[in-house]
Design goal:
about 350 residues, alpha/beta, two-stranded parallel sheet, binds nicotinamide-adenine-dinucleotide, binds UDP-4-deoxy-4-formamido-beta-L-arabinopyranose
Length: about 350
């Protein structure tokens, strides 16, 4: 299939492009490079040996997107493009709603106009809201979102559910990712946050490479086995393969609209991650016990059985792999794509 990847130069999109090529599909990337670099595209060529088509465009721009849809004959869309920093979404809420909703609406209009009937959407476990009871199952109602970023994911899911009803021949997969970390084993592509990272693994790797002085372990008094927060970390290459499986599923099942968790089903604590990172990479991190971040939950992880049942997909990589590959990327690219 020829598959449009909006936001395909970013962290998850670039890894998905690799897996799509490996599976015999033809990805086409549209990205405005707001949070990514053209270097990622050069690296994709080094990994795949292919010139992946790339358009520098804003997915909110209806004219630009209409041109691209007219030129390319897409069989499916994977919609990664969006803003994703939770704290920033609180201070820049309007920009988050504008970008994260407008991209989806523009895409839906182009899909209707150009007869494209399959869409995979990057949703998030954050849509479940503050449910302190895991595993999280797709049938659980949301407990309400706690920040504008999360609401944009919640609203996008609803937009796409309704679009599937209005367009009964569409097939839609709303993929709820848990905590993606790791990098391609080549070390050529990886996570490249702008400014100081919000998420645990890029913070860990930037401390390890000497860009940040120490890691804060945020919260040591949670009701978890070691007192630190527990999450379902998933290797980005496993996650990327989940997208290939979702595209194949949509091709074989016209008319479906499904919410599907992409996680491992296993929770690891912050200390599990830090200790594993130190052990597999033979280094020691400078770390400081610090207060909880406001709003952080103690623990959540997925029930991944629906993905196995519908997509025939499950994760293969371990926490050791995630920690080794994250460090391999960062040590080879200390300043990310600007190295
Ligand atoms: P990323 O920031 O690395 O990638 C997103 C890409 O979208 C970037 O390359 C950015 O330049 C592009 N983009 C943003 N707005 C655009 C626009 N209007 N037009 C064109 N391009 C635009 O993020 P990621 O980690 O790869 O995440 C991909 C998707 O998955 C996002 O929608 C994110 O919300 C979602 N998600 C991410 C995580 C995570 O922890 N990384 C977890 C759950 C869901
Ligand atoms: C993981 C754990 C922190 C940084 C976020 C979004 C969510 C989704 C994934 C997009 C927590 C602890 C972190 C640090 C730490 N994104 N931590 N020191 O908060 O589970 O999820 O990313 O959809 O919407 O909210 O991930 O990586 O920020 O935190 O101790 O410097 O690491 O307290 O327990 P989170 P995270």
């Amino acid at each position: 299939m020829k598959i449009l990847l909006t936001g395909g130069a970013g962290f998850i999109g670039s890894h998905t492009a690799v897996e799509l090529v490996k599976a015999g599909h033809e990805p086409v990337i549209v990205d405005n490079l707001y949070n990514s670099s053209k270097k990622a595209l050069e690296r994709l060529k080094m990994i795949t040996g292919k010139d992946i088509a790339f358009y520098e465009a804003d997915v909110c721009d209806p004219a630009a997107m209409d041109d691209i849809f007219a030129k390319e004959n897409f069989d499916a869309v994977i919609h990664f493009a969006g803003y994703k920093a939770v704290p920033e979404s609180v201070t820049k809420s309007v920009a988050y709603y504008r970008n994260n909703l407008d991209t989806t609406l523009t895409l839906c209009e182009c899909m209707q106009k150009h007869g494209v009937k399959r869409i995979v959407f990057s949703s998030s476990a954050t849509v479940y809201g503050p449910i302190e009871e895991s595993p999280l199952v797709e049938t659980m109602p949301s407990a309400g979102c706690t920040n504008p970023y999360a609401w944009t994911k919640y609203m996008n899911e609803q937009i796409l559910r309704d679009a599937a009803i209005s367009n009964p021949d569409w097939s839609v997969a709303l993929l709820r990712y848990f905590n993606p970390i790791g990098a391609h084993e080549s070390g050529l592509i990886g996570e490249n946050p702008k400014g100081i990272p919000n998420n645990l693994m890029p913070y860990v790797t930037q401390v390890a490479v000497g860009r940040l002085p120490h890691l804060n372990i945020n919260g040591t008094d949670f009701p978890t086995p070691d007192g630190t927060g527990v999450r379902d970390y998933i290797h980005v290459v496993d996650l990327a393969k989940g997208h290939v499986a979702a595209c194949n599923y949509l091709e074989a099942n016209a008319g479906v609209c499904e919410v599907i968790n992409l996680g491992t089903g296993t929770g690891y604590s912050v200390l599990d991650v830090v200790n594993t990172f130190e052990r597999v990479n033979h280094l020691e991190l400078n770390k400081v016990m610090a207060p909880r971040r406001p709003g952080d939950m103690a623990s959540y992880y997925s029930d991944p059985s629906k993905a196995k049942e519908l997509l025939g997909w499950q994760t293969e990589k371990t926490l050791d792999d995630m920690c080794r590959d994250s460090w391999n990327w960062q040590k080879n690219n200390p300043e990310g794509y600007d190295s």
